Amino acid sequence: xxxxxxTVLLAAAMLLGGCNILQxxxxxxxxxxxxxxxxxxxxxxxxxxxxxxxxxxxxxxxYPYARTNVALASAQIIGKHVKKAQFVAQDKIEAFQMENLSxxxxxxxxxxxxxxxxxxxxxxxxxxxxxxxxxxHLLRGQIRASARVYEIDxxxxxxxxxxxxxxxxxxxxxxxxEATLARLQMETIxxxxxxxxxxxxxxxxSAK
Length: 208
What we know:
Blueprint: H1 6-17, H2 23-29, E1 36-37, E2 48-55, H3 57-62, H4 66-81, E3 86-87, H5 90-99, H6 108-115, E4 119-131, E5 138-151, E6 157-168, E7 174-175, H7 178-197, E8 203-204
Parallel strand pairs: 2-3, 2-4
Antiparallel strand pairs: 1-8, 4-5, 5-6, 5-7
Helix pairs in contact: 1-7, 4-7
C-alpha cells in the first residue's frame, strides 16, 4: 500500500473545514443527547500535558503521520473542553522520539522532566488501519489504543487507564480512492480524539 504524505492529508482536511482542519468533523460527528455523563478522570485541569503516542513499525510504515495527527487532534479537542489544560508542542515530542529511538524504555518521569510536564497522557496505538477487513477495495477507519495518565507530581504514578476503540463509518465501508482515504483518515482520527477527550470532561452521551 502506497504511503500518503502529510500534504495530501492536510489538503483533504482543509476541504472539510476551511482554515481550522478539525472544525467540520467536530460539529458533524459530535452526537446529541440530553443524558449527562461524568468525566472518568478530571486531573488534566490546570496541567501541562505531554501527549506521547506509541506506534509499531507496521503503522509507521503505512501511515507515517498517524502518530503526530492523533496527538494533535487529541490535544486540540481535550484543550477545547478541559479548563486551562496546556500541551507540550507536538513537534518537540516528535523530534525527541525520532532522536531517541529507545525512548519507550525511559521512565515517564524522565520524559516529563524533558518537557516540564506535570501529566503524561500515553497512547499506545496498537491498531490503526483505514481498510475494511478482508478487502483491498473498501475503506473503513479502525483505531484501537490504550490510554494511560501519569501524574508526575505523584512520583510518576499511573492514575488512570482506559481503552479507546473506533470504527468509522459505523454503518459500513466506503469505496477506495486517494481522496477518500485522506478524508477518512482525518475523520477517524477526530472521532478517536473526541472519544478520548470525553473521558476527561463532563459531556452529553453520544448517539450510538
